[in-house]
Amino acid sequence: MDEPEVVEDFYGVYLLYCINPKYKGRTYIGYTRDPNRRIMQHNRGTWAGGAHRTNNKGPWKMVMIIHGFPNNISALRFEWAWQNPNTTVRLKHLNLKKIPRKETEFKFKLRVLSEMLRVGPWFRLPLIIRWLEDDYKEEFLPERKPPAHMVLCQGTVKSKNLKRIVISNTIVTEECLLCSNYILSGQSKLTCLNANCELLAHVTCLADIFLSPGEYVPIEGNCPFCNTKLKWGDLIRKMKGCSQNSEECPQEEEEEEGSCNEFQELKLVDNPSWFLDCNDDL
């Protein structure tokens, strides 16, 4: 069996499929920072931290997970919209409903996902669509494929979350090479992924170079110093402390996860970032 891919700073939204003959075909959508622990909780029951909707209906299989979200708010908003496609303003105009006798609940959830990945704000995020179970894998229709910058892959995954960075009060005298102003303590700074490049810049200064008029979150661009093609998501992950070698990355204490409503989400920001969905409504 292949070793699971280790992913740092993990925020994921998953799709469960019930294989219990009595409830076979039922699905469940949830959020997690640790997919391996979460599926065990669902199959053990509410006493172990599983959800009421999955309790005593297992076994369940986690067949797919979407990860690469910048923080828990972004992931929880995605989870809520996937669960409620006819309520979220992003998808309401599509009037998405399961086609009776022609579409299973599972296929309907995948169709909703294909629409979500192509609308804002999610279509600009550096998401990874990962199939965890080969037997359930389905291809996206040509007209509903995710944006080119998103990654489609398969295989197991293991989360490795980062320790929170304690911001020092020490005055930092590094200079942004794009605006020539100092990068003060508490301000976010970016460096190029090319180890030989001297780029050092405010996150907002480099974003201004990468952004096109009317856009709020960059997707990719060329380094103004070495011309290396850079994905914005990779730059942000490096800024947050994700190493190229996952074994070098420190661990964080595990957190509880589960579904939250819109108001609960606003209390759960544990990793603010540039990607905070630009305050877009659901």
Automatic annotation (TrEMBL):
<dbReference type="InterPro" id="IPR050381">
    <property type="entry name" value="SLX1_endonuclease"/>
</dbReference>
<dbReference type="GO" id="GO:0008270">
    <property type="term" value="F:zinc ion binding"/>
</dbReference>
<keyword id="KW-0862">Zinc</keyword>
<comment type="subunit">
    <text>Forms a heterodimer with a member of the SLX4 family.</text>
</comment>
<keyword id="KW-0479">Metal-binding</keyword>
<keyword id="KW-0227">DNA damage</keyword>
<keyword id="KW-0233">DNA recombination</keyword>
<comment type="similarity">
    <text>Belongs to the SLX1 family.</text>
</comment>
<protein>
    <recommendedName>
        <fullName>Structure-specific endonuclease subunit SLX1 homolog</fullName>
        <ecNumber>3.1.-.-</ecNumber>
    </recommendedName>
</protein>
<dbReference type="GO" id="GO:0000724">
    <property type="term" value="P:double-strand break repair via homologous recombination"/>
</dbReference>
<feature type="domain" description="GIY-YIG">
    <location>
        <begin position="9"/>
        <end position="96"/>
    </location>
</feature>
<keyword id="KW-0863">Zinc-finger</keyword>
<dbReference type="Pfam" id="PF01541">
    <property type="entry name" value="GIY-YIG"/>
</dbReference>
<keyword id="KW-0255">Endonuclease</keyword>
<keyword id="KW-0540">Nuclease</keyword>
<dbReference type="GO" id="GO:0008821">
    <property type="term" value="F:crossover junction DNA endonuclease activity"/>
</dbReference>
<dbReference type="InterPro" id="IPR035901">
    <property type="entry name" value="GIY-YIG_endonuc_sf"/>
</dbReference>
<dbReference type="GO" id="GO:0017108">
    <property type="term" value="F:5'-flap endonuclease activity"/>
</dbReference>
<comment type="function">
    <text>Catalytic subunit of a heterodimeric structure-specific endonuclease that resolves DNA secondary structures generated during DNA repair and recombination. Has endonuclease activity towards branched DNA substrates, introducing single-strand cuts in duplex DNA close to junctions with ss-DNA.</text>
</comment>
<dbReference type="GO" id="GO:0033557">
    <property type="term" value="C:Slx1-Slx4 complex"/>
</dbReference>
<dbReference type="InterPro" id="IPR027520">
    <property type="entry name" value="Slx1"/>
</dbReference>
<keyword id="KW-0378">Hydrolase</keyword>
<dbReference type="InterPro" id="IPR000305">
    <property type="entry name" value="GIY-YIG_endonuc"/>
</dbReference>
<keyword id="KW-0539">Nucleus</keyword>
<keyword id="KW-0234">DNA repair</keyword>
<dbReference type="InterPro" id="IPR048749">
    <property type="entry name" value="SLX1_C"/>
</dbReference>
<dbReference type="InterPro" id="IPR013083">
    <property type="entry name" value="Znf_RING/FYVE/PHD"/>
</dbReference>
<dbReference type="Pfam" id="PF21202">
    <property type="entry name" value="SLX1_C"/>
</dbReference>
